[in-house]
Amino acid sequence: xxxxxxxxxxxxxxxxxxxxxxxxxxxxxxxxxxxxxxxxxxxxxxxxxxxxxxxxxxxxxxxxxxxxxxxxxxxxxxxxxxxxxxxxxxxxxxxxxxxxxxxxxxxxxxxxxxxxxxxxxxxxxxxxxxxxxxxxxxxxxxxxxxxxxxxxxxxxxxxxxxxxxxxxxxxxxxxxxxxxxxxxxxxxxxxxxxxxxxxxxxxxxxxxxxxxxxxxxxxxxxxxxxxxxxxxxxxxxxxxxxxxxxxxxxxxxxxxxxxxxxxxxxxxxxxxxxxxxxxxxxxxxxxxxxxxxxxxxxxxxxxxxxxxxxxxxxxxxxxxxxxxxxx
Length: 327
Ligand SMILES: [Fe+2]
Ligand SMILES: [Fe+2]
Description:
Elements lengths: L2 H8 L5 E5 L7 E2 L4 E3 L8 E4 L4 E2 L1 H9 L4 E5 L3 H10 L1 H5 L6 H21 L6 H18 L3 H8 L6 H19 L4 H12 L10 H4 L7 H7 L2 H12 L4 H9 L20 H16 L10 H11 L6 H12 L2
Antiparallel strand pairs: 1-6, 2-5, 3-4
Helix pairs in contact: 3-5, 5-6, 5-7, 5-8, 6-9, 8-9, 8-14, 8-16, 9-13, 12-13, 13-14, 14-15
């Protein structure tokens, strides 16, 4: 056995993440290596070294050879996701790109953004990055009529605070937009609140947030602080509009006054808050947690209608049911 063979056996095999060629922007530099997968279990070959440009010519040649995916080493996943986030606008407005690639990029880059926000909610660019994401996704959802149903198909049914944030955001802005009574500006402001509604959970002990069983009274009291903690984080950043702040602060209020933190009633809850509450509950019911299974859309809506009717805004709830029935 020569030295090279020995090395190959001792180093960990590379985990590869597929990258749709269509999502690579021509004339951009990547900060990650791109690999080509070879046949017959051979190690992948380096296609383009990081910091070298990926050109239109490259893209054409790959397409001519019917190569639809390149690959990234999973250790460079973060750089790839950052690249997607940075190029999100160009990707979503590319008329050549299939819708399923775009929706996937929306989901994947949103999840990455939320993962970063929750890891470091006080990072200086939290609000700017969220707003940019909200704006581009809102544009995309309002222009591509089938994007919402496409997104529904790929939403994760496993509950993670990151994917939950994306799901609640997408449900909320789509409903607000379909209701037709809000300006695009209002929906975008609201969208930032919906995306960041649970950001306060990043300040709560993970053993409580990820608790597998029932919370003790003390843990529950701590958990109930997340709306307030979220507002504090966003206040610290500045630049977050009141409509977004209200969503963060009141998304656990119920129209019959049984929610928290202030036991507000419908008349004291702005419309966007009442929309976000419905999206929040629906997503919690339709995703799997360690202590409970997920129910399907129909069952979730049935539970909400039967057991929570007095907690939810009846008109918005009916519109939500219609939206889910006709995504
Ligand atoms: Fe919450
Ligand atoms: Fe939530």
